[in-house]
């Protein structure tokens, strides 16, 4: 009942907050046309430009995008972001995602990236975990951090809200630091590395047009206007009835290839994410997305 009441309260707030939350705000140097373009219009524009079978395979999803349940998840995340929580009774407004403390506009479109305070290249998820530990005082075993999957998890709600502030921005992961370039290069190696009992690699499914898993058309990573949708996470998975993260998708791909489980927050996971984000460079993020 408590969860239901919270969702009902969030619905009313979402209706009022939608223009600022999802449709964007002020102009930005890395915004394509405008950040007030909703996700479904970005996708429609990409479809018009490409006629891609991958982008057009789910007309029902396109129709449902204006009412994407991920908006409710993002609204819950907005509350959590500004709420003082944890042993330190602090909000996340001092967390720097690459644009400065509390600055979220376009930040996820430039991740993974190198952070001087940790000496690491970090994804949205690993940076969020770092801030929840160092600023709010949570530990790795606390459910706020340990529970990372599902629309009701704190981690998923926060990631969805933070990512929504990059809707419409160009993917532009920085490559100024040697470690950023090293991660991208390592991710490329992993993307093409064939392994496991099926001798699959990421490229086996995403290296050319026309590949399918059952009836599902797969995106070609060599076509950035297709690839941008495939890497736009968090997204509501209709088949799962949950909002999922980039890591959850990566984990699913490795499972489908029958390879070993890629660990959350690992260098391997972040390397692949860095490479796949670089492959979509210059195309608009669709956040939050709605996927099959």
Automatic annotation (TrEMBL):
Keywords: Electron transport, Heme, Iron, Metal-binding, Periplasm, Signal, Transferase, Transport
Record field: catalytic activity: L-cysteinyl-[SoxY protein] + thiosulfate + 2 Fe(III)-[cytochrome c] = S-sulfosulfanyl-L-cysteinyl-[SoxY protein] + 2 Fe(II)-[cytochrome c] + 2 H(+); S-sulfanyl-L-cysteinyl-[SoxY protein] + thiosulfate + 2 Fe(III)-[cytochrome c] = S-(2-sulfodisulfanyl)-L-cysteinyl-[SoxY protein] + 2 Fe(II)-[cytochrome c] + 2 H(+)
Domain Cytochrome c: 76-169
GO biological process, one term: sulfur oxidation
InterPro entries associated with the record: Cyt_c-like_dom, Cyt_c-like_dom_sf, SoxA
Annotated GO CC locations: cytochrome complex; periplasmic space
Record has Transmembrane as a keyword: no
EC number: 2.8.5.2
Residues in the signal sequence: 1-29
Keyword set includes Lipoprotein: no
GO molecular function, one term: oxidoreductase activity, acting on a sulfur group of donors, cytochrome as acceptor
Homology family: Belongs to the SoxA family.
NCBIfam families: thiosulf_SoxA
Protein name: L-cysteine S-thiosulfotransferase subunit SoxA
Species in which this protein is naturally found: Thiohalorhabdus denitrificans
Top-level taxonomy: Bacteria, Pseudomonadati, Pseudomonadota, Gammaproteobacteria, Thiohalorhabdales
């Amino acid at each position: 009942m408590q969860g239901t009441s919270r969702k009902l309260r969030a619905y009313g707030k979402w209706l009022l907050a939608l223009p600022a939350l999802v449709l964007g705000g002020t102009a930005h140097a890395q915004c394509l046309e405008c950040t007030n373009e909703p996700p479904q219009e970005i996708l429609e524009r990409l479809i018009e430009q490409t006629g891609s079978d991958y982008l057009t395979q789910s007309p029902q999803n396109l129709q449902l995008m204006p009412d994407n349940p991920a908006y409710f998840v993002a609204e819950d995340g907005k509350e959590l972001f500004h709420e003082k929580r944890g042993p330190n009774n602090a909000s996340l407004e001092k967390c720097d995602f690459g644009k400065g403390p509390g600055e979220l506009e376009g930040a996820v479109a430039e991740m993974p990236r190198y952070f001087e305070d940790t000496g690491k290249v970090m994804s949205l998820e690993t940076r969020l975990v770092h801030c929840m530990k160092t600023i709010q005082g949570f530990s790795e075993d606390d459910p706020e951090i340990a529970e990372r999957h599902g629309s009701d998890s704190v981690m998923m709600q926060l990631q969805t809200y933070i990512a929504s502030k990059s809707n419409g921005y160009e993917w532009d992961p920085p490559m100024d630091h040697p470690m950023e370039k090293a991660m991208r290069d390592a991710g490329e190696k992993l993307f093409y590395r064939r392994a496991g009992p099926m001798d699959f690699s990421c490229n086996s499914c995403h290296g050319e047009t026309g590949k399918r898993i059952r009836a599902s058309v797969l995106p070609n990573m060599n076509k950035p206007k297709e690839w941008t949708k495939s890497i736009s996470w968090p997204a509501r998975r209709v088949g799962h009835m949950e909002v999922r993260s980039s890591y959850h998708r990566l984990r699913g791909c490795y499972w489908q290839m029958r390879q070993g489980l890629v660990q959350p927050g690992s260098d391997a996971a972040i390397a692949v994410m860095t490479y796949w984000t670089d492959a979509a460079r210059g195309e608009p993020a669709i956040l939050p997305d709605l996927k099959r």
